[in-house]
Amino acid sequence: MADSNASATLLFSPTRLGDIALANRVVMAPLTRDRAIEGRVPTPLAIDYYTQRASAGLIIAEATQINPLGQGYLDTPGIYSAGQISGWKAVTDAVHAAGGKIVLQLWHVGRISHVSLLPEGEVPVAPSAIRANSKTFTANGMEDVSAPRALGLDEIPQLIADYRSAARNAIDAGFDGVEVHAANGYLIDQFLRDGSNHRTDAYGGSIEHRTRLLTEVVQAVADEIGAGRTGVRLSPVTPANDARDSDPQPLFERAVKRLDDIVGLAFIHVIEGATGGPRDNIAFDYAALRAKFHGPWIVNNGYDKAMATAALSTGQADAVAFGRPFIANPDLVARLRHDAPLAQFDQNTLYGGGARGYTDYPALDAHTAG
Ligand code: 8OZ
Questions:
Q1: Given the CA of residue 136, which atom of ligand 1 is nearest to it?
Q2: What's residue 1's pLDDT?
Q3: What is the C-alpha separation between 31 and 351, in angstroms, rounded?
Q4: Of 151, 167, 256, 300, which cross-links 221 as Cys (Cβ 3.0–4.6 Å)?
């Protein structure tokens, strides 16, 4: 079957993101699925789940906590213990054997957590002791997040060291690189924004100060595993998890400029608009953002084939990330290539549970898909 139009072939053409060579420009966005087993080890089902999706040019594996305080939802996996590293190694080996590429998203939720998910006696940490107007998923279902405490200035070096060792662990687990999660109202995003960061030290106040944690984390990760294996995800105007800033355009332009100064980063990955929602919730000049960065640029949020092709052919992006479409379409690349219909996922099996709604979405018949 022929491609629907010639320019769409760009979507299926190879590219490089730093040190990572991609067979095509369809990226699987990170998707939280809450199926980790004892010890916050990825479920063995994740081996099949990710391998079924290995025809993506790049898989960005689900948000994975860098340390125990970085967890904010039930049954999300970590990358800070030997058991977690070996659990992930089985996933990356299988994806590589299937010809895929896979990076791990490094996550610290900050104030988007609940005491029941944290070590005994701990409360969530945040830039400032301001509770988010948000809920999280615990053993008791959806609950309000717990009140956080402000991280001490003396705790920040250890936090950065934890990102660094998580990145090392990801490489030891066979990942091709990492994506630092600086989006969606989690810890690094909480430091970026004046709605959640009221600090008066070197990590709060001016834009220069609020972008410091992001820059120091990404620099430490790049020093550890190489800039060409280090990507970053941002969401300049998302309202997710009570993320708020009085003036996001200059904030995120400065953040991206500072990331550009860390020469040779693998990519920046931008969620345009509200995560998983409207793309036009708040006006934002994404072209001005991209102009601050000289490396590869991934766009995300609500893209279809036509939008993706347009973004690539006008040079607005080097690759396009698809999240929700990958849940029920393991062979999304083939379906896009052949303009095949997309299956819809079942909301009831999104978070938690086993194989149902996880590894049992079929690929199209090989004969039909070609
Ligand atoms: C959905 C449910 C829980 C977490 C994100 C890691 O928004 C997430 C997430 C999404 O980035």
A1: 3
A2: 43
A3: 10
A4: 167
Angle at 67 between CA 65 and CA 70, to 5 degrees: 55
pLDDT for 89 beyond 80 = yes
What is the pLDDT at residue 6?
65
Ligand 1 mean position, distance from CA 36 (Å): 15
State the pLDDT at residue 365.
77
317-357 confidence digits (pLDDT tens): 999 999 999 999 999 999 999 999 999 999 999 999 999 99
Residue nearest atom 3 of ligand 1, based on CA coordinates:
32
Residue 57 confidence (pLDDT) above 60: yes
The rounded Å distance from CA 20 to ligand 1 centre is 25
Please report the pLDDT score of residue 278 as a whole number: 98
Q: Any idea which residues carry the catalytic annotation?
A: 186
Residue 1 lies in a domain: no
> Percent of the chain at pLDDT above 90?
96
How many Cα neighbours within 13 Å face the side chain of 115? 9
Q: Tell me if 188 is assigned to some domain.
A: yes
Burial classification of residue 68, based on how many CB atoms lie within 10 Å of its CB (0-12 exposed, 13-18 middle, 19 or more buried): middle
Ligand 1 centroid, distance to 142 Cα (angstroms): 14
Residue pointed to by tokens 């089902």: 45
Domains held by the chain: number? 1
Query: Would you put residue 211 in left (φ > 0), alpha (ψ -120 to 50) or beta?
Result: alpha
Which atom in ligand 1 lies closest to the alpha carbon of residue 73? 3
Q: Whose CA is nearest to atom 7 of ligand 1?
A: 184
Residue 151: give the domain boundaries.
6-369
**265 falls within a domain:** yes
Q: Is residue 123 one of the residues assigned to a domain?
A: yes
Residues with CB under 6 Å of ligand 1 are 32, 63, 73, 184, 240, 275
CATH number at residue 147: 3.20.20.70
Best of 31, 64, 71, 73 to mutate for ligand 1, by most ligand atoms within 8 A of CB? Answer: 73
pLDDT at residue number 369: 47
Q: Give the residue, by CA position, lying nearest to ligand 1 atom 9.
A: 32
DSSP 105-117: EEE--TTS--GGG
